[in-house]
Amino acid sequence: MWDIDRVARELTCRATARRAAGRITTEWPELDLARAYTAQDRLVELRVQERAETVVGVKLGLTSEAKQRRMGISAPLTAWVTNGMRLAPGEPLEVASLIHPRVEPEIVFEMAEDLAGPGVTRESAMRAVASVRAGLEVIDSRFVDFSFALPDVVADNASAAAYVVGDMVVGPEALDLAAEPCTLTVDGESVAKATGADVQGHPGEALALAANALGERGHRIKKGSLVLTGGLTDAVFLTPGATVTATFGHLGSVSLSGT
Ligand code: 0L1
Ligand code: MG
User: Fold this and answer.
1) Which residue, by CA, sits nearest to atom 8 of ligand 1?
2) Which GO terms describe its cellular component (predicted)?
3) What domains appear along the chain, each with residue ranges and CATH number?
4) Which class for 75: exposed (0-12), middle (13-18), buried (19 or more C-beta within 10 A)?
């Protein structure tokens, strides 16, 4: 018999064992979006307890058309990031420590104030942002071939695995975020290009979306936390020996190498 706690424990076991398996919605069609978000909160609670980690921010998933097309799901979603997922700039990632990691470029906010819906707009969201940085997110679905329905991936904490944030810190008024260009390269070869507008028209829209969605569930985005606003481009597989780099127009660049 499935229930919310079993979903969270099953996905936790898959991550620990580095083993992907089938969709939970196939076995338990009653896993709707509301139950999936409760399972996500439980999964993160387990992670915090078992690994002595702290939740340090929020991530959005499926905020760009490139990502939505790839996954065949057209709704953005929210999830949580912890301090244990953060890699230092230049720190390599052992590919075998995960299942099938993929990397995507993101625009990352650090919050100057708490933010919670309802009624958050792009403008009010951006007023709560302290700084903007370049980021790379590593996603590692606990489902075979990254094949899932929306409740599956929500319960799986939006495939969250790791992230790295660039060194350059820019004030939110210092740049036009919608126009901010990004090139994703693998070993120096360009594989995708995008601008900030690819994330919901403006990354501030993604932030407002997260604040409103989290507010409905009684959560807030806390002052000092990070917000990963979602992959600007499709994600690329990380392979041993390869280096993935996101180069932005005004946010500098950030790289991650696989070992
Ligand atoms: O960060 C993300 O966009 C993850 C959300 C979708 C899950 C995935 O791409 O594995
Ligand atoms: Mg992402």
Assistant:
1) 159
2) cytoplasm
3) 4-257 (3.90.850.10)
4) exposed
- Is residue 244 within 8 Å of 102, Cβ to Cβ? no
Gap between the Cα atoms of 103 and 85, Å rounded: 13
Instruction: Looking at the CA of residue 70, tell me the nearest atom of ligand 1.
Output: 9
Could you give the 3-state DSSP secondary structure of residue 39? helix
Strands 77-82 and 189-195: unpaired
Angle among Cα 151, 60, 214 to the nearest 5 degrees reads 75
Which residue carries 């690994």 as its tokens? 51
pLDDT (0 to 100) of residue 70: 85
How far apart are alpha carbons 194 and 188 in whole angstroms? 17
Quote the CA–CA distance of 179 and 201 in Å, as a whole number: 10
| Cα-to-centroid distance, 43 and ligand 2 (Å) | 18
Minimum-distance ligand 1 atom for the alpha carbon of 156: 7
The reply to whether ipTM tops 0.90 is: yes
- Tens of pLDDT, residues 225-254: 999 999 999 999 999 999 999 999 999 999
Per-residue pLDDT tens digits for 129-140: 999 999 999 999
- As to burial, measured by CB atoms within 10 angstroms (0-12 exposed, 13-18 middle, 19+ buried), residue 204 is buried
**H or E segment to which residue 69 belongs:** helix 65-71
Residues of the chain with pLDDT under 70: none
Single-letter code of the amino acid located at 127 = R
The answer to whether 2 touches 23, Cβ cutoff 8 Å, is no
Q: Among all ligands shown, which has an atom nearest to the Cα of 79? A: 1
DSSP class of 222: P
The pTM of the full predicted model, rounded to 2 decimals, is 0.97
Q: How far is the CA of 159 from the centre of ligand 1 (A)?
A: 6
